[in-house]
Design a protein that fits this description.
Layout: E1 2-4, H1 12-20, E2 26-29, E3 32-35, E4 43-50, H2 52-65, E5 67-68, E6 77-86, H3 91-97, E7 102-111, E8 118-126, E9 129-137, H4 139-146, H5 151-155, H6 159-170, E10 174-188, E11 193-204, E12 218-219, E13 225-231, H7 237-242, E14 251-253, H8 255-259
């Protein structure tokens, strides 16, 4: 779901401010006391909606200037699939829709059809800054989780998995929807820049199984793509100029929120 706005002006000091204004408090669920770890390093994040023409122009330019992610196939792309979690009252979705500056969401993510590399991710947003923490999961653990057995999370000793367990018990987090798309990623070392173009956004029910064949579910992209630019303290001029195109506007966009339109 996209909302057009003006491009944000964010300085590196904003990242420091955001990191220092995050309130981290212990959560108590039954006899379990969970001290949530503060978000990791914040990065700047900008998103742009792409129509077909802008996609062709930008992707051609980026391929000449920057190297592809090493995990990409011969065409420079790979499939990203995520199982999103939310509360019974859709807290994550409605906070996004309401424009809440500080918010979080949990997802289980894997790439292509590789079940040997699965991650639980917590993404934290503070305005136009983002941070992400992750922990490894096995395919068997994901199956247990979808069958309602979350006790192994508590037994893992991992801080993020323990926090996820506390949110399952305290906020009743549960799987909501599967989201999948093809990603073309470019890297540029100065500024630790990562540029991605996401295409063919698809969404389906998690009841279809894990992993789901996302090629058989609804295409919710409406023929458009999403350009994302992430960087640390500064955005190099070569990147800023490379991502310019006629009609390209910064947009607040959430693949998760977009997928929920069809619930």
């Amino acid at each position: 779901m996209m909302t057009e706005t003006t491009e944000p002006v964010v300085t590196s000091s904003d990242a420091v401010t955001a990191a220092h204004t995050v309130t981290v408090a212990p959560a108590v669920y039954g006899r379990l006391l969970v001290m949530e770890k503060p978000p990791g390093r914040f990065r700047h994040e900008m998103k742009y909606g792409l129509d077909g023409t802008a996609d062709i122009i930008l992707s051609s330019r980026l391929r000449k200037l920057f190297r592809h992610d090493r995990h990409a196939d011969s065409h420079g792309s790979y499939r990203v699939s995520s199982l999103y979690f939310d509360t019974p009252y859709d807290k994550a979705m409605w906070e996004k829709m309401a424009g809440i500056r500080k918010r979080e969401k949990f997802r289980i993510r894997y790439y292509n059809d590789d079940m040997s590399f699965i991650r639980l991710e917590k993404k934290y947003k503070a305005g136009n800054l983002c941070s992400k923490r992750s922990a490894s999961l096995t395919f068997q653990q994901v199956v247990r989780l979808l069958e309602g057995d979350a006790e192994f999370l508590l037994e893992s000793g991992d801080a993020l998995l323990t926090e996820f367990y506390s949110k399952i018990k305290g906020q009743l987090l549960r799987p909501v929807t599967m989201v999948s798309y093809m990603r073309e990623a470019f890297l540029y070392d100065p500024g630790n820049v990562r540029i991605t173009i996401d295409r063919q956004l698809r969404s389906g029910s998690w009841y279809a199984g894990f992993p789901a064949d996302m090629r058989k579910v609804a295409d919710v992209s409406e023929g458009k793509g999403v350009l994302e630019v992430k960087y640390d303290d500064f955005l190099p001029d070569i990147v800023r100029m490379a991502v310019q195109a006629d009609g390209l506007r910064w947009q607040a966009y959430s693949k998760y929120a977009a997928s929920r339109r069809f619930d």
